[in-house]
């Protein structure tokens, strides 16, 4: 059974008071009993002193005198000689009584003049209080005068004293218990308020405060609890501020952040880590890194961080949900005793950097290769001419034509590289203004018509007369279309067709698109300006699907040997992509191997002229 602190206090006080009253009662009972005995003995002594003068009559009248004296003194009177023989007695016949020489009071009286004793009387069969006094006589020697009263009469007031004392003790105990109950309830109420206050603080209820109490230990405890609540409120506010700052920092980090506990289970991850690793917070929390990511490289990184005090770094390759290369940095967390408490892992996506590094290396290799071929040819033919190995003028002329052709190819390559570099660095000036696309289309067809006629390719346009002007740099748009149509003519066999078309698309701002994706869908019809969709369609050899995503990369060729034979530098489509993007457009390429290719360009149309005001 659970006892409350109030019950315990009441029981403690009650037992303590009851024990104290019992000790006091026992002491007072004994003291009162002793006092009553002493008073009775003193009374008997006084009466013995008075009766001593009548002892001579007692010796003469014997029992009769004793009875008269007993009537006056209310005590039993006995005369005993020095040898213990009873001479007179008020209650028994002295002749029949036994010798009293061995009685304690008689022995004391003979030895010291007086004596007293409390004992059981064999004569009257009850406890008596005896007082004996030696009385000298003239002729027969000393006589012992003994007075005795029943012990019950001697202590007659003791029972009343005991009854009154225990009644007062019971009343005092009841009053004390009542006071203890009131005090305990008051204490319990204060403790309950403190308990409710402490529980409220533990639930985060920091506004309430305990009322100021008495100036005792409970008052000090109340003040200490209020002070603790103030300190805790300040600490929690500071922790909340720091926690919010930490959450803001982790959520705004571009790097993925994982925090793992001592059992290698994920206890925290920021949104960047969710996106980077393809995880969901609810699922990932509580899982180990192996369970969540299935990456042994990350597990090895964590083990390396645990085995040393510094920072461990490694590259991690993940394949799900897509292939990514991450730069991981792990730091082990330890307490003051050096015991491992977990680890913090920062993950940065370097997939694009790796891809750019690969592209840079590939670009260097491609440039080297592209430059090596014409330079080798030029050097070979030039050395032949220098050494006089050719005497025939016609052969010499052919050699010079080859040198000139490769020199022009080098010039075109360097020009394209310079232009592409200026476009990427946004150094190419553009004169964006409204221009008639129909005139541009006619000019492009006119420039490339001879090339189409040589291969018997039908080069046509499909541009409506009411097409709004396009908002673009006219010369750069011509350059784009010439490049696209020229490519179409190069890769379309004889008898094929190439069509340059355009149409109005009532759409919003075009989104950025990757080459190889489906053709752009018209954006929202609520946009303020229309767009022109320009297409170059051929019936040529087509492009394999695997090559479409990279077709606009620098020096990328589907058929490298054929491209060089056709005089291409491998930079045309890369230039086209950057020129389209610089003018606020998008580029998409669709192709089917053996069926042909369609290149779609989406450029903004020029706004209509303002209506005249009358």
Write a structural description.
The chain has 614 residues and is of the alpha+beta class. 50% of the residues lie in helices and 20% in strands. The chain has 17 helices and 17 strands. It has helices at 5-51, 55-61, 63-73, 104-112, 151-154, 158-202, 217-252, 271-277, 281-284, 289-293, 296-307, 351-386, 393-424, 437-454, 474-490, 560-565, 572-582; strands at residues 76-81, 86-89, 114-121, 126-135, 143-150, 256-261, 266-269, 311-318, 324-334, 340-349, 432-435, 458-462, 470-473, 497-505, 531-538, 586-592, 596-604. The strands form four sheets. It has a five-stranded antiparallel β-sheet with strand order 2-1-5-4-3, with helices on both faces. The chain has a five-stranded antiparallel β-sheet with strand order 7-6-10-9-8, sandwiched between helices. Strands 12-14-15-17-16 form a five-stranded mixed β-sheet, covered by helices on one side. It is rod-shaped and about 200 Å long. Residues 508-527 have low confidence and may be disordered.
Strand content: 15-25%
Give the CATH H-level superfamily of the largest domain.
Answer: Histidine kinase-like ATPase, C-terminal domain
What's the arrangement of strands in the largest beta sheet?
Answer: 2-1-5-4-3
**How many structural domains can be distinguished in the coordinates?**
5
Arithmetic mean of pLDDT: 82
- Terminal residue distance: 102 Å
Q: Quickly give the CATH architecture of the largest domain.
A: 2-Layer Sandwich
Structural class: alpha+beta
DSSP helical segment count: 17
Q: Could you say what the CATH topology of the largest domain is called?
A: Heat Shock Protein 90
The number of strands is: 17
Roughly how much helix do the residues carry, as a percent range? 40-55%
Poorly predicted runs: 508-527
Outline: rod-shaped
Give Rg in angstroms. Answer: 64 Å
Task: State the major sheet.
Answer: 5 strands, antiparallel
| The CATH C-level class name of the largest domain | Alpha Beta
Oligomeric description of these chains: single chain
């Amino acid at each position: 059974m659970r006892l409350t602190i109030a019950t315990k206090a009441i029981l403690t006080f009650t037992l303590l008071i009851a024990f104290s009253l019992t000790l006091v009662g026992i002491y007072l009972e004994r003291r009162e009993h002793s006092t009553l005995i002493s008073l009775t003995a003193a009374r008997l002594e006084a009466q013995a002193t008075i009766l001593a003068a009548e002892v001579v009559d007692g010796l003469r009248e014997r029992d009769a005198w004793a009875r008269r004296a007993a009537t006056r003194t209310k005590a039993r009177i006995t005369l005993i000689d020095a040898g213990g023989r009873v001479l007179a007695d008020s209650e028994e016949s002295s002749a029949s009584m036994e010798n009293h020489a061995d009685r304690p009071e008689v022995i004391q009286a003979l030895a010291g003049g007086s004596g007293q004793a409390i004992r059981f009387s064999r004569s009257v069969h009850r406890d008596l209080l005896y007082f004996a006094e030696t009385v000298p006589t003239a002729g027969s020697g000393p006589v012992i005068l003994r007075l005795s009263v029943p012990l019950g009469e001697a202590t007659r007031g003791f029972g009343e004293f005991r009854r009154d004392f225990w009644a007062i003790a019971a009343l005092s105990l009841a009053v004390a218990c009542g006071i203890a109950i009131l005090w305990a309830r008051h204490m319990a109420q204060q403790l309950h308020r403190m308990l409710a206050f402490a529980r409220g603080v533990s639930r985060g209820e920091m506004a309430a405060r305990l009322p100021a109490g008495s100036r005792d230990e409970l008052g000090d405890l109340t003040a200490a609890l209020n002070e603790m609540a103030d300190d805790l409120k300040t600490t929690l506010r500071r922790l909340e501020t720091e926690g919010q700052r930490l959450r803001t920092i982790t959520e705004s980090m571009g790097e993925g952040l994982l925090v793992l506990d001592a059992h290698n289970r994920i206890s925290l991850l920021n949104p960047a880590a969710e996106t980077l690793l393809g995880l969901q917070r609810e699922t990932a929390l509580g899982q180990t890194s192996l369970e969540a990511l299935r990456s042994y490289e990350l597990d090895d990184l964590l083990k390396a961080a645990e085995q040393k005090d510094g920072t461990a770094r490694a590259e991690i390759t993940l394949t799900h949900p897509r292939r990514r290369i991450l730069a991981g940095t792990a730091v082990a967390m330890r307490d003051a005793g050096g015991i491992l408490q977990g680890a913090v892992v920062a993950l940065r996506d370097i997939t694009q950097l790796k891809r750019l590094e690969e592209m840079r290396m590939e670009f260097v290799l491609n440039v080297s290769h592209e430059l090596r071929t014409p330079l080798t040819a030029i050097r070979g033919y030039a050395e032949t001419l220098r050494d006089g190995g050719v005497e025939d003028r016609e052969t010499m002329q052919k050699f010079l034509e080859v040198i000139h052709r490769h020199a022009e190819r080098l010039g075109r390559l360097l020009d394209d590289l310079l232009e592409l570099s200026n476009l990427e660095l946004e150094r190419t000036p553009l004169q964006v203004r409204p221009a008639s696309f129909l005139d541009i289309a006619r000019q492009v067809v006119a420039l490339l018509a001879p090339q189409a006629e040589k291969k018997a390719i039908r080069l046509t346009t499909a541009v409506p007369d009411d097409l709004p002007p396009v908002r673009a740099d006219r010369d750069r748009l011509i350059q784009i279309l010439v490049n696209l149509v020229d490519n179409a003519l190069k890769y379309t066999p004889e008898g094929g067709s190439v069509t340059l078309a355009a149409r109005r698309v009532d759409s919003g701002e075009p989104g950025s698109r990757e080459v190889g994706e489906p053709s752009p869908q018209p954006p929202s019809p609520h946009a303020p300006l229309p767009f022109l969709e320009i297409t170059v369609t051929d019936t040529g050899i087509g492009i394999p699907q695997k090559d479409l995503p990279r077709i606009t990369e620098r020096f990328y060729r589907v058929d490298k040997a054929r491209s060089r034979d056709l005089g291409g530098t491998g930079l045309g489509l890369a230039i086209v992509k950057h020129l389209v993007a610089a003018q606020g457009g998008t580029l998409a390429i669709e192709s089917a191997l053996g069926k042909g290719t369609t290149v779609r360009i989406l450029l903004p149309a020029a706004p209509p002229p303002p209506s005249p005001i009358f």
